[in-house]
Structures are given as structure tokens and as C-alpha cells.
Amino acid sequence: MFVTTVHRLLDAPKNQLKAVAFGGLVLAQVVTGTALAANADSSPQADAASPKSGIVAVARQEAAKAGLPSRQVSAEQLLALAEKQVGISENGSGGGTKFHAWYMSSPRARETVARDSGTIADYADAAWCDMFVSWVGAQMGLQDTVGADAYTVAHAKWFAARDRWGTTPKPGAVVFFSFNGDKSIDGIEHVGFVIKDNGDGTIRTVEGNTDGGRVEIRTRPASQIVGYGYPGYAA
Asked: Which residue ranges does the record assign to the Peptidase C51 domain (predicted)?
């Protein structure tokens, strides 16, 4: 029997209903994302952000010139890729994005199904904000430091278990939200990337599955933020 998660968006009633159908993702244990396939976007919807071209190719070329491993990219490079996805939207069933297709085809989906129960098919129209974050990290070759999950609570605990959890907004940080002001990790409902601290008690973010089921740039108040996960970026 599937048990629904607390992962939900309060931006619109449709998103609330969609999240209730999330399909059996209950945290049993936190596992790493290191087994995620290196060919991170294997879906037919792969675009110029694939590892073979576009932003990622440039990032890897720059890293190679600097003598760094190709996966060591900056927060700015990751955010450029994330912002490139703005405008992508879900279908009428709450799925159909390349983020869903990628996650379902990845080894990580099998791991999280084994952890949480359900089936890979359950991800087809599941809430996808964390799939978006995971996709971006994997495209940049940073799956071992951004992590990969479809369940925000598990993803936040993954960062905490690695001493990469805190309360300071930094560009490229993975930001976790609770829209009712709950400050516990177990109350997390949504996730995105920090673009910048606005310095006025708000942050600018790029998020998937927001504003009616799209990738958008948003401004969020500190009252909605539970905490931040800090990937390891190149200096």
C-alpha cells in the first residue's frame, strides 16, 4: 500500500492535489546519490544542456584548462543551466517533463523505489521539484555533491548527514522550504536553488514545479525556509 509524502506545493490547489498522489515515498533510510548514471540526461527530451554540448561542455572545457576534474564546476555555471530551464512546464497530469523522464530512467529511481516502496511508474506524474534539482546536478556531473532524490525530506537529510546543512543562503545552495513556517526537516515541502540573497529577508531562487507546475525564478521570504544544503563547487 502506498503512503503519500508531505512533499507538496502550496502555490496552487492543483499542486496540492498532485502531491497527494506522490505515490508511496516514505523515508526509510538515506542513501547516497553516487550510483546515478553518468549519462544523466538519457531521455528523448535532452537539449543543448546535455553533457556533450552547451553549458556543460563549456564548463568542462574550462575545468580542463584549469587542470580540474570535469565535474568541478562553479555555482554560477550550475545556476546558468538551471535558469536555462525556466518556462518548462508539466502536462495536464502533472508530469511529462524531461526531469520526470530522466529520473525514471536513472538507477537512482530504482534505489528510491526500493527504499520507499511503490513503482518507478509512480514518478511519471509525481511532484517534481526535487527531480529538477537532481537533474541539474547530474547534468553538471555533480550528483555526488548535489545529491539526487525525488523526496525533499530525504534529500535534506542526505545533506545533513554529510555536514553540508545550514541556515545561510549562498548562490548555488539547495534551498528547502516549508510554506507553513515549520522549521523541521520532516516538514519540508519544496526545494530549489538559491540564485542570490536579496539582503532584505528574501532570496531569489530558481525552482521546478512551482507557479502552476513550471520552472520559474521566484522571490521567497526567510519565513518559508527550513534550511540549505551546500554542494561542493569549484572556487
From this structure: 104-230
